[in-house]
């Protein structure tokens, strides 16, 4: 299926096969529609569950030190001052360094092997964190954890955008993103169970068991996924050989162009950098996720178990909000307001947190900023992928660049939460509020830019007599 017919926001109409040197799928035939529905149904039963489960474990393994902090983690490793913050931040340095090379590699290898293999590696590295005994060892392991985790998110998103059309992608991205939200929600419940049942078992602290248990579960899931995850639509390998018919693969195929040309197109497009700033600001705004257990502990709600359980509810509500926002975004074919409105609720949550000492009000505010940040984030990826989609190679490189730049927010946001500001973390809340505002402003700017481009596309369509394929606003 050609990008000009499926996803190419900047294409006008349908070009001939001779011009594009590729097959153009023309919607409207009843048999084709039935074939497309069958294809999407198969993807929803194979690709989506596998990628979602891997993403859930990706965030469990990445963020389990947030729960470990409530155990004897800092004391056992002798962490002082902002050393925990550095350990949180250093992962994103390795993450940034590996993302773009990985996405360029992905288009040349089999994803059904590459992505699960990376997942097995991060499972082992995460579990190995249980064996560290000092700060330097922790920093080394966390850095390499970022390196081996880097291929997953941009690779998974590129896989989805290679199989799903623009109109289908927002909801699927939100479903994928719910793995992050649910991982954060259930990580507290898992930690509570492990700390209660395995603390001191075989002479190991509860936080070490937490890392081992979650790493082992992640490795098992990665091993199974290698046999289920399909490769690219044009590939006659992996599970796609028996999951999809030849007609379904032809329907889904998307010709991959030169990678360096795609990288050049992505770098030269200023919209790539606007989306990068938008998502970087969004990531900076939810810098709270590594410190949310500590924030909730500051509410003095009860025991450590009660604190961990209370971290789950805001993320569960955030999952529901994320699905609702994505469904509405797809249904109404709109992106900008579906990003900015949830962020306005997040801003309100940060303001309430700063303005009051009332514990119920601050706990309620956490629902606002968690739901607002997570509700908007997945839509940014979808919008960027559809807008920067002139070729598959450009899409791969552009989404990798956007994701790399967004990680800067994950690198610096841990330093918002200085130990001396606990438990309210007022400066951190103000900074996250400010970055939410920046994200809203860039969103409205991009909406205005694309509206202007649509007007130009409509004018060109009137002159040529060919129907315009407009940007989603």
TrEMBL record:
Gene3D superfamilies, sorted: MFS general substrate transporter like domains
Membrane topology: Multi-pass membrane protein
Primary residence: membrane
Coiled coil regions in record: none
Alphabetical keyword list: Membrane, Transmembrane, Transmembrane helix, Transport
Sequence ranges assigned to domain Major facilitator superfamily (MFS) profile in this UniProt record: 47-451
Subcellular locations according to the entry: Membrane
Superkingdom of origin organism: Eukaryota
GO CC terms: membrane
An example molecular function term from Gene Ontology annotations: transmembrane transporter activity
Record-linked InterPro entries: MFS, MFS_dom, MFS_trans_sf
Segments crossing the lipid bilayer: 113-133, 139-161, 173-195, 207-229, 273-292, 304-327, 339-357, 363-384, 396-417, 429-450
Record-given protein name: MFS general substrate transporter
């Amino acid at each position: 299926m050609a990008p000009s017919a499926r996803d190419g926001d900047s294409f006008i109409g349908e070009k001939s096969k001779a011009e594009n040197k590729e097959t153009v799928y023309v919607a409207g035939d009843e048999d084709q529609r039935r074939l497309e529905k069958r294809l999407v149904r198969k993807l929803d039963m194979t690709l989506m569950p596998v990628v979602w489960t891997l993403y859930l474990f990706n965030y469990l393994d990445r963020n389990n030190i947030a729960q470990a902090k409530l155990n004897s983690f800092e004391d056992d490793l002798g962490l002082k001052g902002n050393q925990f913050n550095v350990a949180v931040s250093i992962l994103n340095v390795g993450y940034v360094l590996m993302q773009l090379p990985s996405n360029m590699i992905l288009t040349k290898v089999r994803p059904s092997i590459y992505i699960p293999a990376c997942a097995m590696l991060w499972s082992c590295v995460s579990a190995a964190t249980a064996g560290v005994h000092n700060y330097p060892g922790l920093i080394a392991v966390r850095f390499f954890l970022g390196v081996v985790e880097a291929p997953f998110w941009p690779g998974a998103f590129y896989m989805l955008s290679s199989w799903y059309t623009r109109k289908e992608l927002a909801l699927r991205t939100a479903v994928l993103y719910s793995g992050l939200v649910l991982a954060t929600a259930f990580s507290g419940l898992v930690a509570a169970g492990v700390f209660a049942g395995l603390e001191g078992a075989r002479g190991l602290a509860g936080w070490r068991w937490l890392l081992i248990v979650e790493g082992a579960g992640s490795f098992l899931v990665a091993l199974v996924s290698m046999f289920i995850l399909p490769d690219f639509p044009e590939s006659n390998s992996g599970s796609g050989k028996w999951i999809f018919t030849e007609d379904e693969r032809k329907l889904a195929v998307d010709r991959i162009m030169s990678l360096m040309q795609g990288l050049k197109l992505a770098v030269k497009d200023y919209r790539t950098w606007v989306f990068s700033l938008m998502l970087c600001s969004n990531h900076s705004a939810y810098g709270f996720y590594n410190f949310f257990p500590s924030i909730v502990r500051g509410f003095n709600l009860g025991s450590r178990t009660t604190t961990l359980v209370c971290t789950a509810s805001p993320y569960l509500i955030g999952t529901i909000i994320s699905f609702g926002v994505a469904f509405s975004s797809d249904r109404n074919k709109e992106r900008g307001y579906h990003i900015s409105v949830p962020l306005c609720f997040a801003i309100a949550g940060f303001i309430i947190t700063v303005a009051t000492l009332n514990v119920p009000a601050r706990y309620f505010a956490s629902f606002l900023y968690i739901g607002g940040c997570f509700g908007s984030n997945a839509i940014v990826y979808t919008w960027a992928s559809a807008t920067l989609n002139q070729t598959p190679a450009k899409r791969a490189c552009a989404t990798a660049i956007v994701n790399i730049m967004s990680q800067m927010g994950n690198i610096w946001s841990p330093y918002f939460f200085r130990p001396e500001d606990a438990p309210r973390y007022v400066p951190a809340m103000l900074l996250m509020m400010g970055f939410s505002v920046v994200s809203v402003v860039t969103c409205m700017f991009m909406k205005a830019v694309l509206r202007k481009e649509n007007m130009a596309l409509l004018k060109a369509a009137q002159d040529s007599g060919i129907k315009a394929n407009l940007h989603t606003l």
